[in-house]
Amino acid sequence: MIFSSELIKGTLKTIVLKLLSDNKKMYGYEITQRVKDLTGDRIQLTEGALYPTLHSLEEEGLVTTELEYMGKRVRKYYKLSASGKTRSKERVSELAEFMETMRVLLDIQPKIA
Amino acid sequence: MIFSSELIKGTLKTIVLKLLSDNKKMYGYEITQRVKDLTGDRIQLTEGALYPTLHSLEEEGLVTTELEYMGKRVRKYYKLSASGKTRSKERVSELAEFMETMRVLLDIQPKIA
DNA sequence: TACAATGCATTGGATTCTTATGTATCTTTG
DNA sequence: CAAAGATACATAAGAATCCAATGCATTGTA
Questions:
Q1: pLDDT tens digits, A22-38
Q2: In A17-53, which positions are buried (b, 16+ CB within 10 angstroms) versus exposed (e)?
């Protein structure tokens, strides 16, 4: 089952920030694949959503970029800035609280880990 | 803490459907207050978001409406149709799965209920 | 050699929400 | 009793966010 896109809304930035906080640096395509892998194909980021998000994070100063050349192919790596690291923690914990609130609101039983 | 609005995106319809599945009938203002209560003021639905959503659910045939007069004041009650009940269950379980996926992706520890 | 995968990116459109506004009634408080 | 707040409906303009489609180019594979 692939989740209907509406659910992704509002969580994309948090996903990206979290991944970047766990990895020194990542490039766009890598992020899409990592999310695909980690979610068992259930979340597939589209490029039309991801790249504007990455650019937006850069404009906000939360990530910095560096180009790397693999032969003739260019990779644009993104890494968290200091403020990005802080923001990442904030976003993740806010989402955690939100999910807990939604769990109560929707009377959803938590899975036993 | 009131959640940043982006997080609510995509979950509003599910919230409304779930509340209606737990209550025979509800009216708009009641829904906003119920959500406010159930979430300890953390989620506050705006009318500009709620009413279009309710109208949309009606157009989709997921809810039916009936007017009730309290003196001169009108209340518009919404109740789930048969297809609405089905959709409600689908939406809630989809959101539950999505949340579980996000929990794994973001490495969020579940609270012990 | 064609096709799939990798890798960047933009554009147009749809959807969804916020903010602001409007109307009207009922209740509480100074 | 008047004013303010709560109750109750609703719409409109604009912002934000995402998807689908498209484009370009390189690399690997059947």
A1: 999 999 999 999 999 99
A2: bbbbbeeebbbbeebbebbeebbeebbebeeeebeeb
